[in-house]
């Protein structure tokens, strides 16, 4: 690992810390040449298996690109998309697998996208889950309505806090 400041190919680990959920190790490193410190994050490699059977590294950018079209014209920012991709990656990594089907990545997107924007969710789900009729939409909308009702019933204090980073 090159020092990002002076490109020295050698560095010394001064601190190692496990992420709260155990999915990553963060190391503080010291460059013996320029004396600056930098961090590296070590995670298991995560492969997405495509329908053809070929694997490729999990990419947040691919998630964002896959969802962006469904978000056209919606009040969804690039930051929202980046957070969504991060949440998808965290959820997938938390399941502890080294490989995941592309199809399951799509499923992992549905939940966070539903919270982000319901219209974008319907667009994405209609393509991804192959909606073929108005009934398919009706069913999805009914589920959304039901969930909105369920959320109202949860006292705000009981909601799960956002994960701190
Ligand atoms: Zn250096």
TrEMBL record:
A zinc finger (unnamed) spans 3-34. Residues 46-136 form the ATP-cone domain. It comes from the Bacteria. The keyword Cell membrane does not apply. InterPro entries: ATP-cone_dom, NrdR-like_N, RNR_NrdR-like. It holds the Pfam family Zn_ribbon_NrdR. Its cofactor is Zn(2+). HAMAP family: NrdR. Belongs to the NrdR family. This is Transcriptional repressor NrdR. The gene is nrdR.
């Amino acid at each position: 690992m090159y020092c990002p400041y002076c490109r020295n190919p050698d560095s010394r680990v001064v601190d190692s810390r496990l992420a709260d959920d155990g999915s990553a190790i963060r190391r503080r490193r010291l460059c013996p040449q320029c004396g600056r410190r930098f961090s590296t994050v070590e995670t298991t490699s995560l492969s997405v298996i495509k329908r053809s059977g070929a694997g490729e590294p999990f990419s947040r950018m691919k998630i964002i690109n896959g969802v962006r079209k469904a978000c056209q014209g919606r009040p969804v920012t690039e930051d929202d998309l980046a957070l969504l991709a991060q949440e998808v990656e965290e959820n997938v990594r938390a399941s502890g697998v080294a490989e995941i089907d592309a199809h399951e990545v799509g499923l992992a997107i549905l939940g966070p996208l539903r919270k982000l924007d319901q219209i974008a969710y319907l667009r994405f789900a209609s393509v991804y889950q192959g909606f073929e009729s108005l009934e398919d939409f009706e069913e999805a909308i009914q589920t959304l309505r039901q969930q909105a009702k369920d959320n109202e019933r949860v006292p705000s204090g009981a909601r799960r806090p956002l994960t701190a980073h």
